[in-house]
Amino acid sequence: MTSPTAYTPVAGRLLIGGEWQASRDDFTSRNPANLDGVIGTFPQATAAEVQAAVAAARAAFPAWRRTSRIIRAEAFDRLAQLIKRETDALAELMARECGKNITECRAEVVEGLHMVQYVFGKGRDGVYGEVVASEIAEKDAYVRRKPWGVVAVITPWNFPFAVPLWMLGPSLLEGNTCVFKPSEETAAVGQRLIELFVEAGFPPGTVNLLHGSGTVGEALVRNPGVNVVCFTGSYAVGQRIQEISASIPNRIVAAEMGGKNAVIVCEDARFDLAVNAGILSAFKTTGQRCVSASRIIVHESLMERYATAFTDKAQRLRFGEPLDPKNFAGPLVNRQAVEKVLSYNALARQEGVKVLLDGTECGTKGCFVQPFIYLSEANPQSRVLREEVFGPHVALIPFRTDEEAAQIYNATEYGLSMAVITESYRRMRFFRDECDYGMAYVNLPSIGAEVHLPFGGVKKSGNGHPSAAGLIDVVTHKTAITINHGTDIKMAQGLTTAIDGGPA
Ligand code: NAD
What we know:
By secondary structure, the chain is α/β, with parallel strands linked by helices. The chain is 36% helix and 22% strand.
């Protein structure tokens, strides 16, 4: 177990144009494993501070854009060294602030490091554009990507280190400048990340930090000085950001949102692998990953055995102190999350499901809830089978044919992550083609991203601009450049160049 070292709460500050502002105590971030524990106090950015941060990013943009892409990338190499130096401290802060187990927090810091290393490597790679042919032999033509300008980065609490880096990394590499608003639940991790950017030598104004609730996020979204909003969070907020942005000229929004993911366990599945994949998908991070599975769709011939083994394993999982690596997972993030999960458990009962494991709240000072597992026939009207719960709440749903399993999988408005457990390549191919998702896993849990793959979903899960490796496309726009090496003008499509009726 990591020693619960003495902890000094963070004094939250905004970073605007390279200047750390005086700290203020407008809101408090607390330890969800023990709500008496204060992680830090933070300022809620005012409208004037939001405006100043956007103006600072805009002022820093021309010089940063003109800096060599390779030199910009090298700042990420310095950042990588700092993240390596700070891995343990960052993981510990994250465990205290968002309640994820220390082993998961460490893995998240490593994921953030991988993103930074990926961005550094991309600096000398060829995604910058492409050379294309021209109809006219004397012409060279190429496509070159240019940065949009100012990128607002608005992120959720559940991946407070890696997700901001998925967005800040590509944005800054490509020459944009950024205003970052971390989740108010994980403001301390957000601030520590930006302190490392400053230490790595990113010039003043290239990265700005605003703290605060959704009100601050919305003021940032409404600011016409922002060219691109990179958002990750719930569907409701992502949809609102897209609606507001629709009335702002030339606004790009990349929105990665919620999920109602599933594991499909086929009749030919390796049984133990299928049980473990279900457990990891449903309960890792206490079910609070966007890719967590709250539905396990099991072939009817296996259901009885699967339900027994799955419930038995879930019962033995240890939910407890996040700093203890022997625990499987920690608490929910806050009291509202506890109320929400318990209300979905109650709704499942009202809908008449068969409860196999009754997840009640446990402990008095933290936000701990035990797994809730139930059997339910497929039911397109059911809210609990369609809506994102974001907690240890999972349905076991039987199916008879592969066609029926795909229908059950698709019977939700989300489409983020799917896992299929099968030994048959034909089945795998069927589900690959028939299900709606952004990420599919075969003989694996529905969780487990790597930064060099695009991360995103369809339907209510995403608007087609995946994060991590996918984000370079969003934070740049393509320009087409055509250069004539001839001594006179020749046009494509046979367009005449004759002027004043004279010969061409
Ligand atoms: P949330 O939507 O409540 O908040 C996300 C961020 O948006 C926070 O920084 C919040 O302050 C800000 N915000 C809130 N209202 C706003 C507004 N009106 N305008 C602008 N910004 C506003 O999400 P959360 O509870 O922090 O995170 C959980 C959600 O995130 C889940 O739905 C989960 O599935 C999703 N998520 C998605 C992905 C993905 O890649 N698809 C990854 C992680 C989490």
